[in-house]
Automatic annotation (TrEMBL):
<dbReference type="GO" id="GO:0005634">
    <property type="term" value="C:nucleus"/>
</dbReference>
<dbReference type="InterPro" id="IPR041667">
    <property type="entry name" value="Cupin_8"/>
</dbReference>
<dbReference type="GO" id="GO:0071532">
    <property type="term" value="F:ankyrin repeat binding"/>
</dbReference>
<dbReference type="InterPro" id="IPR003347">
    <property type="entry name" value="JmjC_dom"/>
</dbReference>
<dbReference type="GO" id="GO:0036140">
    <property type="term" value="F:[protein]-asparagine 3-dioxygenase activity"/>
</dbReference>
<dbReference type="InterPro" id="IPR014710">
    <property type="entry name" value="RmlC-like_jellyroll"/>
</dbReference>
<dbReference type="GO" id="GO:0036139">
    <property type="term" value="F:peptidyl-histidine dioxygenase activity"/>
</dbReference>
<feature type="domain" description="JmjC">
    <location>
        <begin position="134"/>
        <end position="306"/>
    </location>
</feature>
<dbReference type="GO" id="GO:0045746">
    <property type="term" value="P:negative regulation of Notch signaling pathway"/>
</dbReference>
<dbReference type="GO" id="GO:0005737">
    <property type="term" value="C:cytoplasm"/>
</dbReference>
<dbReference type="Pfam" id="PF13621">
    <property type="entry name" value="Cupin_8"/>
</dbReference>
<dbReference type="InterPro" id="IPR027452">
    <property type="entry name" value="FIH-1_dom_II"/>
</dbReference>
<protein>
    <submittedName>
        <fullName>Hypoxia-inducible factor 1-alpha inhibitor-like</fullName>
    </submittedName>
</protein>
Length: 339
């Protein structure tokens, strides 16, 4: 497997039952880079210096240069930080008609709870963290209030280079940059996003496992109306082949990214990301771009377009029946024994 400089010890990396090919690692000036991005295939870009101005963003620097605002951290008893969209709970109520109102409210398990913290407290807790303690993950969108030092560095990112990429590949606007500071061993379980992503690694190493949108059927995402929308129901690190038999057909790609590497995670591509040894914590910053305009549709349509269609069908059916919980039964009736 290809990795960045001072590679983490490969024997430490978890083994999986499914095959994992290497994501290409190319210098950002290599013309193949834009061919891969154009065809929405992942690639690790080296030498871009995209966030070179953030190469000093270790815990000490962030502690001194992120001001005294509140930052969002997630706390988890285990090592998984599965995104839970609280807004979906309100949407379920708004879609569900009167006939479901008197149903007992389903209790959703929140794998990680979010809470505000000062960067100084967070840094102290990371330094003092030891195996067995609850795990922390700072996940905070950067803004002009992120602290003077950090903002100054942010301004000095290679905006010329990344904006040229955005334009060349017809991406939509930059929605935001999420700063991620997590402990070694933290896992963001398999999910996809509806945005293009340039994922810049700043401190420490992360093992990134990706699957193409075409493997939707092997990864059993939660329903669109569920707070775990876009997240896979499967746990790659604890596979349940009885419940999810198609996991046996998984075939992924992977890369270990280190400081200075930028991983292109194409829109709708599944990704499972783990902070790995030897460093105690990792710092990453992503660049999320809205999808560009669809333009001329080519047939047969692509995997990611099928995912977008399936999402729209689920939303439309839930809305039409005023009850998200009835969508599965209707779809089964519609296809079983007929197609
Ligand atoms: O950038 C993305 O798309 C993400 O999923 C981020 C959310 C948690 C991050 C991680 O590195 O664990 C990755
Ligand atoms: Zn993601």
């Amino acid at each position: 497997m290809s990795t960045s400089r001072n590679e983490p010890d490969q024997c430490n990396l978890r083994k999986y039952d499914f095959p994992l090919d290497d994501i290409p690692r190319l210098n950002c000036m290599d013309p193949q880079v834009d061919e891969l991005i154009k065809s929405k295939k992942p690639v690790v870009l080296t030498g871009s210096n995209l966030v070179g101005a953030a190469s000093k963003w270790d815990l000490d620097y962030l502690e001194k240069n992120m001001g005294n605002g509140d930052f969002t951290i997630f706390v988890s008893k285990g090592n998984q930080f599965k995104f839970f969209d609280e807004k979906k709970l309100a949407e379920i109520d708004s879609v569900s008609g009167a006939h479901t109102k008197n149903r007992p409210q389903k209790e959703y398990i929140r794998p990680a709870k979010s809470c505000p913290i000062k960067i100084q407290d967070f840094a102290k807790r990371v330094r003092e963290w030891k195996d067995g303690d609850e795990r922390l993950y700072l996940q905070q969108a950067l803004s002009s209030t992120s602290g003077a030092g950090v903002v100054q560095d942010f301004i000095r990112f290679r905006w010329d280079w990344v904006t040229a990429k955005q334009k060349l590949h017809n991406w939509g606007k930059l929605t935001y940059n999420l700063l991620l500071v997590g402990l070694e061993g933290n896992v963001t379980p398999c999910h996809y996003d509806e945005q293009e992503n340039l994922f810049a690694q700043i401190h420490g190493h992360k093992r990134c496992i990706l699957f193409p949108p075409e493997q939707f059927g092997c990864l059993y995402p939660h329903p669109v109306w569920h707070p775990h929308d876009r997240q896979s129901q499967v746990d790659l690190d604890n596979p349940d082949y009885d419940r999810f038999p198609k996991m046996r057909d998984l075939h992924g790609v992977q890369a270990v990214v280190g400081p200075g590497d930028v991983l292109y995670i194409p829109i709708y591509w599944w990704h499972h990301i783990e902070s790995v040894k030897p460093e105690k914590y990792t710092v990453s910053l992503n660049f999320w771009y809205k999808a560009g305009p669809v333009g001329q549709v080519e047939y047969p349509i692509k995997g990611y377009q099928k995912v977008a269609i399936m999402r729209n069908v689920e939303k439309m059916l839930a809305e039409a029946m005023q009850d998200p919980e009835e969508v599965g039964a209707l779809l089964r009736t519609m296809v079983q024994g007929r197609f």
